[in-house]
Amino acid sequence: MRINKNILNQAWLQAAIEQTAIDYQCQGYSIKKQVRIADMQADLIVQKDHEVIFFEFKSGKWDTAKVNQALKLRNYVIHNQAGKFKLVLVNTPKEKQVKIDGLKDILYNLCLEKAIPELSNKLTQVTLETVSDIEIHYSQIRQKEIEVKGSVIAHFQIEVEKESFLATFYLTLSHNLELKTLYEFNLDLSNFF
Q: Nearest-5° angle of CA 114, CA 116, CA 120?
């Protein structure tokens, strides 16, 4: 499942506000969230003795109106409140993409070796067309091998129908990207037979 980027940005933004509030509260500051100031709003205000800090948190892209609002709040805080203004940029973590050259070919060959015989025992005409949607769930590079766990969709022509099945795999590759050890290769046929 992929989470919508706007939802993710909003969740990270709220988490950053909460974490900042907790951090300052642990240092003895009083905390106020989402405070209206004239026609503006501060995401967080922390105060201790005579020190007041106004926070604005930014996640994702801001339009011109939001930029102008933050500038207006900053100017108001500095000139009218004798406080400090902090703009906090909240970045969502980036998904890491792992691509292993030749893995698609290795998985295609594994489908030929493992899945075709299994399907051929029950059906008369089975042809592997392609594999797609490779997802690497875990990978680790070691001194003598690369360990990879994941899934792939295998597309078959079965008699007159096209069918696709999920296959999960667990294997190791040599550093020159050749199959070294196959620990697991399971084709999910549970909904087919």
A: 125
Domain boundary among 90, 120, 152: 90
Does 95 reside within a domain?
no
What is the distance between the alpha carbons of residues 162 and 140, in angstroms, rounded to a whole number? 35
166-187 per-position pLDDT tens digit: 999 999 999 899 999 999 999 8
- Confidence tier at 120 by pLDDT (50, 70, 90): confident
In whole angstroms, give the CA distance from residue 98 to residue 135: 9
Buried b (16+ CB within 10 A) or exposed e, 14-49: eebbeebbeebeeeebeeeeeeeeeebebbbbbeee
Whole-angstrom Cα distance, residue 112 to residue 164? 14
Residue 86 lies in a domain: yes
Tens-place pLDDT, residues 4-55: 777 888 888 999 999 999 999 999 999 999 999 888 889 999 999 989 999 9
What is the token pair recorded at 1? 């499942």
pLDDT of amino acid 156: 87
Q: Provide the number of structural domains found in the chain.
A: 2
**One domain, residues 49 and 122:** no
